[in-house]
User: Fold this.
Amino acid sequence: MSEDSHPVFDPKNMPFRRLGGSGLRVPLFSYGGWLTVGGSVVGDPVKDLIKTAFENGINMIDTAEAYAKGNSEIEIGRVVKELNLRRSDLVITTKLFWGLRSGPNDGGLSRKHIIEGTKEALERLQMDYVDVIFAHRPDPTVPMEEVVRAFNWVIEKGWAFYWGTSEWSAREIEEAHHVATKLGLIGPIAEQCKHNLLYRERPEKEYEPLYRKYQLGTTVFSALAQGILTGKYNDGVPADSRFATEKQQMFKDAAARLSSPEGLAELAKVKALTKYAETELGCSVTHLALAWVAVNPNTSTVILGATKPEQLVDNLKALDVIPKLTPAVLEKIEEIMKTKPTPVVSFGWTLALDLSLELS
Ligand SMILES: NC(=O)c1ccc[n+]([C@@H]2O[C@H](COP(=O)([O-])OP(=O)(O)OC[C@H]3O[C@@H](n4cnc5c(N)ncnc54)[C@H](OP(=O)(O)O)[C@@H]3O)[C@@H](O)[C@H]2O)c1
Assistant:
């Protein structure tokens, strides 16, 4: 405890990276509350999860207005108060888009929803500000100038320090930067995107120019492909897993896909990767999959999803695997997975993803 009785934050062995071109330092592994916090996990177990995260170097928590219909933010706010965590020790991010009610102005990225949605999120979190506020999806029905101006207003008010995007196309992110530059305003500093060994085209190919041009940061989600890369679905869907317990259609579709030809081909790769991780690297496939995302220099933070403190602590063993990912090991992983995006081809020249020009 510090003199003013706040628990002292000890980063332990957690590396910190700047979030894109901003000055904000984020832990390489953060914790996110989709489906879990306020949904499948409520009350004291949420406190255990956040306390465990904080005590293991994770001071960044990601949530959204839509997670558990606002209850994720409510639970996080309650627990931060109960644990008496110092606000400046924490990096809290939330996201706006879906809203909580079904009125014509209750969602999307209008100036009205961005401002009202931010105020409501802060009330649920019992906080004066979040560190980063994300547009949870693009909204093509709203002029980009309105979106950029509204997020800048939120920043000017001190309700957020930075803003970012989630699941926007590269074209949309570029447009936001062009509008912000034209108006002398702040552009998005990071994209919250999916990236894992089974999903690579967008983060590695589509966004590639954005990392160089705008120093785009990434807060990566589904690094374990919602559990597929833990190997837990290798022999069917366990009864206590997300694909079995969650009611939404997307999980029924995901479970059904596992027995399709594409799903079976993916599981065969996961099985081969599991064997390689265990026999050659002395780690689990879960740790290897997480370390593989973390070692990517364009990753700012990997958002871990976990239902139990033990899962969180176990997943942090990925930090020990990072030094094992030598160029030769990374090449072997490519051979097993065969998911590397094809290079961009331009006028007979191959534009390699590291942007060195090679004759094709
Ligand atoms: N911006 C967006 O649109 C967006 C979308 C998705 C997620 N996110 C953010 O990213 C966070 C993480 O996403 P995600 O939940 O999809 O991540 P994920 O890491 O791909 O999946 C997490 C799930 O994998 C399983 N798991 C994790 N560790 C495990 C272990 N050691 N052993 C066995 N199973 C394990 C658990 O599933 P079971 O429940 O089956 O145990 C856990 O809930 C979310 O909480 C959210 O903050 C953002």
